[in-house]
Write a structure and sequence with these properties.
alpha+beta; eight-stranded antiparallel β-sheet; 17 helices
Length: 681
């Protein structure tokens, strides 16, 4: 076994590899750029080597710099993580020439699966289902109809040089195929100067389901079930789970066996993932093979008890798999939510800055693992598990140079419903301040009826949030629970204030039991009866709620139960109440005496400032260029300026016709969120 390995990566995956290496008694070497000098993976590793400036193309993906770090550290093997150099055959070749083990698959497997055309051809030869289609030259509409009938409707008619949706039609019958062929051909000719057309099967109700494979260098290959990854935004996975709520045992077995056949066909040895698109009738088609560890691998580990990183290291060291296909089962259910530094209220724009508060929920183990990597006994001992894979810490910075993922929050339960409920509580318990983040959006997804039913496709986010995410409106039952909790918390605060030292004599303050709670446009009159274990809150209609739990004034997290069910809220103090964040909702909860509530209703509503004639910076970023000048008339859709954030350029455009009256920024300026870039007449 290796004595020292280098991790050619950063962030949470580098920390993840270090944890397993430490468990195996292997020393670790981290590499870091200037931006990661104080990063968590650098702190966790046994030694760390500086490799250059912040941009990845000057540090993490420069093969020569990684090779020098290997030479300087004396590392015997390299784990590439995911991204960066993980699927770069040139890097694997360089390691091989240097006599350093690559903790990943052979070079030929990386090359074969890295080319989409080659990988599809190999998959077909290995007996893997691929999307039926005809890639040859199609002469006329009648031939298009004939080919479409052979493939089976519906079909997608596409321009060979297509892009942006042009030259593309879906045909559900012969007439639509005939008409669609000619329309696509004409559109392709005018848009691209190339009227070549191809036809392939159109997959309805598509789900993205992938199979985890594990193979060694001795001809053994197994599959560790599937992961459902259909909750995606712009092809970026957001929520993953294992197993899939859609597959049956027969389909799972067929997909797994085909995945192992593909692995064997390319001489695969390591952990890898075969991705499929699956339609509403459980027909599955090969998409691609990722020749590396997947971001979402923890959900597979939670339902199988297999440490995939450990298995990768053992395979790279020449060991045979200690697990057979018969050893792989499915124990319980696991869900992963990706926590990103992006603002869901601003169309998920990236957010950078310092984590002024970062308190993940307490991790809970699902049960002991044997050294072989299998669950001890039939099932884990705990009811639920919580796991948080992260590469950041409180006080650290989210850099503009790298991926915006902060953490991967995972939960495990004996059933899917238990895993979802554990995730809801874990999300509510996760405290992140200082940057924009997608915790509210993740909470909304976990409560969405379509997600909880398992009736999801890759179009879920686009269909359910077509206008973007605008927050969560809680139903009355949820509001009553929060109102009861906040009225009980308010009484604790009021009683505490009466006990402050240094009071004047004969000025004892009495705390009443009648309160009015206002939140999300609802008013509730309540009566609070405290006792040594909690409070009983009675509403005006006679309904009562029992509130118990752990909260003292000043705590940022309230971990309570209402009528025996958990209620976790992030709490901040505001005048006459609390700012509460729970289940994706961000609420101002005012708790007032009846007289205060009466007077509050007479107060005029404070309206937000009018910014309709201003262009505000939607994210922290750098002004690349200003495209207009003072006095210039602009048209709807015209580019006004370009802002760079997370190494992505964002063009800000005029929403309507107008005249620029003032420009407040110039190229090279660093701007904060909502800083005024320019004003209009």
């Amino acid at each position: 076994m290796f004595k020292k390995i280098l991790i050619a990566n950063r962030g949470e995956i580098a920390c993840r590899v270090i944890k397993t290496a430490r468990k195996m008694g292997i020393a670790t070497v981290a590499v870091y750029s200037d931006a990661d000098k104080h990063a968590l993976h650098v702190q966790m590793a046994d030694e760390a080597i500086h490799i250059g400036p912040p941009p990845a193309n000057q540090s993490y993906i420069v093969i020569d710099k990684i090779m020098q770090a290997i030479k300087d550290s004396g590392a015997e093997a390299v784990h590439p993580g995911y991204g960066f150099l993980s699927e770069n055959p040139k890097f694997a070749e360089a390691l091989d020439k240097a006599g350093v083990a690559f903790i990943g698959p052979p070079v030929k497997a990386i090359e074969a699966m890295g080319d989409k055309i080659t990988s599809k051809k190999i998959a077909q030869e290995a007996g893997v289902n691929t999307v039926p289609g005809y890639m040859g030259l199609i002469e006329d509409a009648e031939e298009a109809v004939k080919i479409s009938a052979e493939i089976g409707y519906p079909v997608m008619i596409k321009a060979s040089a297509g892009g942006g949706g042009k030259g593309m039609r879906i045909a559900w019958n012969e007439q639509e195929a005939r008409e669609g062929f000619q329309s696509s051909k004409n559109e392709a000719a005018s848009s691209f100067g190339d009227d070549r057309i191809f036809i392939e099967k159109f997959v309805t109700q598509p789900r993205h389901i992938e199979i985890q494979v594990l193979a060694d260098g001795h001809g053994n290959a197994i599959y560790l079930n599937e992961r459902e990854c259909s909750i995606q935004r712009r092809n970026q996975k957001v929520v993953e789970e294992a197993p899939s709520p859609f597959l049956d045992a027969e389909t799972r077995k067929a997909m797994g066996e085909q995945s192992c056949a593909l692995a064997a066909a390319v001489g695969y040895a390591s952990a890898g993932t075969v991705e499929f698109i699956v339609d509403g009738d459980k027909n599955f088609y090969f998409l691609e093979m990722n020749t590396r560890l997947q971001v979402e691998h923890p959900v597979t580990e939670l339902i199988t008890g297999v440490d995939l990183v450990e298995q990768m290291i053992r395979v790279a060291a020449g060991e045979k798999l200690s697990i057979s296909q018969a050893d792989v089962g499915i124990t319980g259910w696991a869900i992963e939510n990706r926590l990103y530094a992006e603002d869901p209220y601003r169309n998920f724009l990236p957010s950078i800055g310092r984590l002024t508060r970062y308190r993940p929920p307490m991790e809970q183990a699902a049960g002991p693992l044997l050294e072989t990597g299998k669950w001890q006994g039939d099932a884990p001992s705990a009811e639920v598990a919580v796991r948080n894979d992260t590469g950041v810490y409180e006080g650290g910075e989210i850099s503009m140079y790298y991926d915006p993922m902060i953490a991967k929050l995972c939960t495990w339960g004996r059933t899917r419903d238990e895993a979802i409920e554990a995730m809801r509580v874990a999300l509510d318990s996760f405290e992140v301040e200082g940057i924009g983040h997608n915790l509210p959006f993740l909470s909304a997804v976990m409560d969405h009826p379509r997600f909880t039913s398992g009736n999801i496709t890759t179009a879920f986010i686009a269909e359910e949030y077509p206008e973007g995410f605008e927050g969560v409106e809680l139903d009355e039952a949820a509001l009553r629970r929060i109102a009861a909790a906040c009225s009980a918390m308010n009484l604790v605060s009021e009683i505490r204030r009466t006990r402050i030292s240094g009071r004047m004599d004969n000025h004892e303050r009495k705390v009443g039991r009648h309160w009015c709670v206002n939140l999300q446009g609802h008013d509730f009159a309540v009566q609070v009866a405290p006792d040594s274990n909690g409070s009983t809150v009675t509403f005006e209609d006679g309904a009562t709620h029992r509130v118990e739990g752990d909260w003292t004034p000043g705590d940022a997290l309230a971990d309570l139960t209402v009528d025996g069910s958990p209620l976790v809220m992030k709490v901040g103090k505001i005048s006459h109440g609390f700012r509460v964040r729970s289940r994706g909702a961000d609420l101002k909860v005012h708790v007032r005496t009846p007289r205060q509530a009466e007077l509050a209703r007479l107060m005029p509503e404070k309206l937000p400032p009018d910014t309709s004639k201003m262009l505000l910076c939607p994210m922290p970023g750098l002004v690349v260029k200003i495209d207009v000048e003072e006095g210039q008339e602009v048209q709807e859709g015209q580019a006004l300026c370009t802002i760079e954030a997370m190494k992505m350029e964002n063009i800000l455009r005029a929403e309507r016709k107008g005249v620029v009256s003032k420009v407040n920024a110039a190229a090279g300026d660093s701007l904060a969120v909502d800083e005024v870039i320019m004003e209009f007449e």
